[in-house]
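seq as requested:
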Amino acid sequence: MWMHEGGADAFAYLALYELKYIDKKRFLDFQTEAFNYCLSSIKNRPLMDVKEDPNFRSHYRCGSMLALLTHSAALKQNKSHDLFYFWNQLFEEAKTSGKPYTESMYFSVLDRITQNQNLSNAMKALLRGPIKSAKEAYLEEFKNLGVQVVSSESSLPREYQRRVGMDIIRLLMKQDCAGKYGLSGSSHGIETESIESCKAFKTSMYVSKINQISVMSKGAKAYDDVRKTCLTKGAQVSLTVGKPAKHVLVDCPDGVPVRESYLRIVDIPLER
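struct tokens:
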């Protein structure tokens, strides 16, 4: 899945840019959103350990990041090579061997083209482990290959805001429901599943705000506000739910991690 669907996303980004349907800024925006989605979904697990993703979006987004590593490494080794060249070589390898192309063949061709087995090892760890920090692993390989990434808190996109809003509701729900949670995003807010063992989350509800802050358009601010509120022992946060709106108080989690900053990809080697 990471090869097929992640590769398809990566082909689309690169083809749109090379055919001049999008400019470099938009191309970098596509890559940036995929990168942040990937990191938020795997949460320092190998990609193959992600089981709660029925639409396989993690495989699309993380797969496109692995394709970006492949593209950049091929280009670094030879200025006339890129992601399209790599897949051409992979297809030729499959044709010559008379076998379907596989993950193992992918890395064999990658090693031959890039002469960089350290990259293959890093990608295998991101896929199947062991991995301590997915973010640091990606950032190290990006740095080695000339992909420039900066931390940014300006103009945070709505998709990121929504995901961060879901992250904080997930923490609240796990505290309230003895470690269980179930939620999904919608146009109205974040929908929680009914779980019998919960207190505040016993019935399903749409959460539109936390402490009067929108979880959809200002999820990062809501997350940071909950973290600040929950530094006080025994504190609660207020959820705005349903229509007409009502307020539900929820106990603070036992420690709210510092929110991961938004990482913006600001340059990628593209010359051929």
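The first strand starts at residue 148 and ends at 152.
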